[in-house]
Design brief:
The complex is a heterodimer of chains A (about 120) and B (about 110).
Chain A lengths: L4 E3 L2 E4 L5 E6 L6 E7 L6 E7 L2 E4 L8 E4 L6 E5 L8 E8 L9 E2 L3 E5 L1
Parallel strand pairs in A: 2-11
Antiparallel strand pairs in A: 1-3, 3-8, 4-5, 4-9, 5-6, 7-8, 9-10, 9-11
Chain B lengths: L3 E2 L4 E5 L4 E7 L6 E7 L6 E7 L4 E4 L2 E6 L4 E6 L8 E8 L7 E3 L3 E6 L1
Parallel strand pairs in B: 2-11
Antiparallel strand pairs in B: 1-3, 3-8, 4-5, 4-9, 6-7, 7-8, 9-10, 9-11
The chains are: A mainly beta (about 120), B mainly beta (about 110).
Chain lengths: ~120, ~110
């Protein structure tokens, strides 16, 4: 079974530029999560999708971050414009259904550096 | 407001001995607790969990203990093996209606051969 795929693996941009991350969840997984992990901290949930609907985006900085999950499969997370404090690893995870919270399968992450 | 805390950033243990990783939480509404393991350049992988109605859960070399009165949980690994060297995250799930996971800051475990 293929795991959660993310791209790119690394990205370096200057502040005020925009960036987009892509995630392909495990086939058949209805729930998709985006997390932000700042160095020295644990992952923090940014947004959770159930199929193509948003379940929780309470911690998403909506003035600069946006995410979509078209057709309930792949998802993209965008930052525009980026700030220095956005430097972090962005993790995508998926699970069969939101009630099976412990069975979140994580991708390798995208490490973003904003200079 | 850090609701899940792992106060030890790192821990070194001799191979074959017991590793004990600790986690404290402040929110009494958490109803499930999980441990994740993370290797460099990989995403976290689920290790073991425990419901708030239990005080112990065991899976092979891994045992999680929960002390609700102290709002404390611990992960015991025995015997420790070199492959256990990784960062371990404690996570807690909110109760119905707020079920997202809240992660601790992680403890880097190093097993010394």
């Amino acid at each position: 079974e293929a795991g959660v795929a993310q791209s790119p693996r690394y990205k370096i941009i200057e502040k005020r530029q925009s960036v987009a991350f892509w995630c392909n969840p495990i086939s058949g997984h209805a729930t998709l999560y985006w997390y932000q992990q700042i160095l020295g901290q644990g992952p923090k949930l940014l947004i959770q999708f159930q199929n193509n609907g948003v379940v929780d985006d309470s911690q998403l900085p909506k003035d600069r971050f946006s995410a979509e999950r078209l057709k309930g499969v792949d998802s993209t997370l965008k930052i525009q414009p980026a700030k220095l404090e956005d430097s972090a690893v962005y993790l995508c995870a998926s699970s069969l259904e939101s009630s099976r919270y412990y069975e979140q399968y994580f991708g390798p992450g995208t490490r973003l550096t904003v200079t | 407001d850090q609701q899940v805390k792992q106060n030890s950033p790192s821990l070194s243990v001799q191979e074959g001995r017991i590793s004990i990783l600790n986690c404290d939480y402040t929110n009494s509404m958490f109803d499930y607790f999980l441990w994740y393991k993370k290797y460099p350049a990989e995403g976290p992988t689920f290790l073991i969990s425990i419901s708030s109605i239990k005080d112990k859960n065991e899976d092979g070399r891994f045992t999680v203990f929960l002390n609700k009165s102290a709002k404390h949980l611990s992960l015991h690994i025995v015997p420790s093996q070199p492959g256990d060297s990784a960062v371990y995250f404690c996570a807690a799930r909110g109760s119905f209606g707020n079920e997202k996971l809240t992660f601790g800051t992680g403890t880097r475990l190093t097993i010394i051969p």
